[in-house]
Design brief:
Sufe protein. Chain: A, binds zinc ion, 157 residues, four-stranded mixed sheet, single chain, 4 strands, alpha+beta, 38% helix
Length: 157
C-alpha cells in the first residue's frame, strides 16, 4: 500500500465516522431519496437553492462506508456552487470512479479540481462499489434538475 492510498483511506474512514452535513434541512427546496439495491445503501439528499446557487445541502440515511463518505465529501464540495458547476463536478467525479479515459483529476482552465473528492478514485478498481460512490450524486442530480423524488442506481450507469 502506498502512503497516498493510506492517506485516502484515512480520509474515507474519517468522513464515515464523522459525516459532514449529516442532518435534515427542514425548509429544503427539494429532497430526493436514492437507493442502491446492489449494496443496500439508502440516502436522502436535501438541497436548499438560492437561485442557481446551492445555498445548503445535506444528507440522511444509512449505507456502507463508501456511500456515507461519498455523501459527506459531496455535500462539502458542492455547497456554494452553481448548478452548472455541480454538473461539471459530477461529470468529472463519475469519470474518476468509473476510470473513464477522461482525465478526471486534471484541473481545467477554470481551476476547478476535484479536490478532496479524488480520494474516492480507488473505487474504480472495485466495480461493485462504484454505485456506492455515485448514488448520492444521482440523487443530487435529480434534485437539481427537478427529476424524480426517488432514484435507484439500477437505472443508472
Ligand atoms: Zn454501498
Amino acid at each position: 500500500m502506498t502512503d497516498l492510498t493510506a492517506l485516502y483511506q484515512e480520509v474515507i474512514l474519517d468522513h464515515n465516522r464523522n459525516p459532514r452535513n449529516f442532518r435534515e434541512i427542514p425548509d429544503a427546496t427539494r429532497h430526493v431519496f436514492g437507493r442502491n439495491p446492489l449494496c443496500g445503501d439508502e440516502v436522502t439528499v436535501y438541497v436548499k437553492m438560492n437561485g442557481e446557487v446551492v445555498d445548503d445541502v445535506s444528507f440522511g440515511g444509512r449505507g456502507c462506508a463508501i456511500s456515507k463518505a461519498s455523501a459527506s465529501l459531496m455535500t462539502s464540495a458542492v455547497k456554494g456552487k452553481t448548478r452548472a458547476e455541480v454538473h461539471d463536478l459530477f461529470d468529472r467525479f463519475h469519470a474518476l470512479v468509473t476510470a473513464s479515459p477522461v482525465a478526471a483529476a486534471e484541473p481545467r482552465a477554470d481551476g476547478q479540481a476535484l479536490g478532496r473528492l479524488a480520494v474516492l478514485g480507488g473505487v474504480a478498481r472495485f466495480p461493485a462499489r462504484v454505485k456506492c460512490a455515485t448514488l448520492v450524486w444521482h440523487a443530487l442530480h435529480s434534485a437539481l434538475e427537478g427529476g424524480d423524488s426517488e432514484v435507484s442506481t439500477d437505472d443508472q450507469l
